[in-house]
Structure formats: C-alpha cells, structure tokens
Specification:
The strands form two sheets. Strands 4-3-2-5-6 form a five-stranded mixed beta sheet. Strands 1-7 form a two-stranded parallel sheet. The relative contact order is 0.19. 35% of the residues lie in helices and 18% in strands. It contains four helices and seven strands. By secondary structure, the chain is of the alpha/beta class. It has one domain.
Length: 150
Amino acid sequence: MRAPVILAFILPLACYAFGLLPAFSASGECCGPTRLPWLPAAFHGEDLVDAPLLVVGPRHVTVDGVLVAETPEIVEASEPPPLDALRTLLVNKKELWQQIRPDVPFPGEILIAATQDLPAHAVVRVMASAAAAGYPRTSIMIQKLSSPLR
C-alpha cells in the first residue's frame, strides 16, 4: 500500500527534474532563454501573443507540448512529408476556440519557436501545414536582446 503513496510524491518530482513538465512564469512568458537556448536572437521584438506554441526543436516538433512530428524527417525529406498530426491537432484547437468564442472571429495566429540551426525549408514546411490548418498568421519566437549601445 505504500508504493502508490510514494509514487504520488516521487513521480511529479522526477518529471520536474527531467524537464518533462512545462515551465511556468507569472510574467506571462511561456519559456525563458534557459528553456529554449537554441532560439535565434534579435534586438527588436514584441510581447508574446495568446496563440498555440509550435516548437520545432532539434529532434521533435510539438504543439503546446504535444509531439506531432520528428524534426529529422522534415529536414532530410526531399519531398515535404505530410504533417497530418500537426494539421489535425491545429484544426481541433481551432474548432475548440470557435466553440468557446462563437461571437469573436478566429485570429488564426500561431507562435513558432524554431532552432536557429534548422534549415529554412523545414520551418517553411511547418508554417505551410499550420496555414493549411487555418493559422495563416505566424509569429516567430526569439530571444530578445537588449538594445545595442550607440
């Protein structure tokens, strides 16, 4: 009888220790530079938008933490692979949004965080799949640098 009680305390701690739980920040940021160190950096940017977060990391593609594709398959393919899981998940999110807010037009915006070492064609393929699912407005997530000294 003690095993379930011990697992109830150890499992969440293990998930946190290995980075399996998403980061939380009271400031409204979903991730800091320490969580996604491979983001490109820029001096100018805007605050984050309330939109699904599509992360194209070195190994995986996720939407709000849900695995939808493997990055090497997208990068190495000569023909664009069908990203059906990505499209399905985004269409479902769009339908849910429209059910919750029937009087407000759907903004169709998505936030993409892509590794800076990723070939541009891979990001374009992911953006095209998002647009086909009803998300034509794309914001690219960056690490914001402080203003350069003049």
